[in-house]
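Field reference: sequence -> structure
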Amino acid sequence: MKQLSKNQAIAIGKGGEWKDWTEEEIVKFQLYQKRLCMPFDVFHKAVTNVLGRPVWIHEFGGSGWYALQGEYEGKRPAPTFEEIAAMIPEEKRMILRI
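Structure field:
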């Protein structure tokens, strides 16, 4: 997919055309763009609903981005909780199990 320029991404965001898109259309478009073209919370909710699982914010960074693409394309399974937690650097990780 061709990457949008900064000005193109801003124009889509301000134009609000994404408001008429289904969640599937949002994911199919935004998951492959480097620049955010809509409010993050709209994109995050769409990914969560389309993938059918909670998607943690840190999954959108680094290699997690490519993992989300692979999961969306059906090329890889959803990550386990341990795999999601391992994406957080160990020195910043604090997990409480109650």
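Note: The helical segments are 6-15, 23-30, 40-51, 63-72, 81-86.
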